[in-house]
Amino acid sequence: MVKKLKRSARLVEMTQYLLSRPHHLIPLTTFASRYGAAKSSISEDLAIIKEVFEDEGTGELQTLAGAAGGVKYIPKVGQAQATQFIDELCEKLSQPDRILPGGYLYMSDLLGQPALMNEAGKMFATAFAETEIDCIMTVETKGIPLAYATGAELNLPVVLVRRDHKVTEGSAVSINYVSGSHKSLHTMTLSRRALKEKSRVLIVDDFMKAGGTIQGMVDLLSEFNAEVAGVGVLVESGEVDSGERLLQDYISLATLRAVDAKGKEISVEPGNYFTQK
């Protein structure tokens, strides 16, 4: 259906259309047909939107020439916005009432905030914007909101690794992995239909200590002849020596340095986001 709109209204709707379709190539003919406008007018509109996106740090608008060309919105977070988000995340994580018995940190409320997860997803989308990725992977359950937020910003599907095999998943591949401070043995499983062979996968998780769970996913990917395109974690533990960590190539948004259960103090610092990406 052709929409006859004033240019100001058309700019607003085109912007919304692009923002809701990140990493999706949209032919200029789509906009021309949608608004009953000449391609030259649409190109001028896109030039205005591109300038605003770049000035405001909203992202990039890439134009591809040729018959199969069009325009693609690439979400990106600017340095100032990223710094502000990470500082706010560290502040939230430092709240003393997050300390649980045993020195554990309560994070479920943060993982349940869509706005916070969407911003974190955009951070990972920025870090891996130039990386060839076929899908996002996480292990159930707490990392799911972060994985879906990242998948939405990259316009990619999400693959969920289960801790127990479900009959509704069909045939699956299962492996054992070691995780936790007590080096406990666990099992993870992935449906054979969930992941295509030789896929390039971005692993996303909410928390990483030594990296046993993530290494388990890496090992699981090898069973599918798939490749790790990158690893992103919301919070990493800074109490683990680099020699004890099972993987070194990852991006973190925050680092948990110490939890003093007796003194009710939590030390949280920015992660390696700015140095690794």
TrEMBL record:
Molecular function as annotated in GO: DNA binding
Chain ranges of the Bacterial purine repressor N-terminal domain: 6-75
Keyword Phosphoprotein: no
Recorded superkingdom: Bacteria
Domain Phosphoribosyltransferase residue range list: 110-238
GO-annotated biological processes: negative regulation of DNA-templated transcription; negative regulation of purine nucleobase metabolic process
Pfam families per the UniProt record, alphabetical: Pribosyltran (PF00156), PuR_N (PF09182)
Full protein name: Purine operon repressor, PurR
Organism, as annotated: Fontibacillus panacisegetis
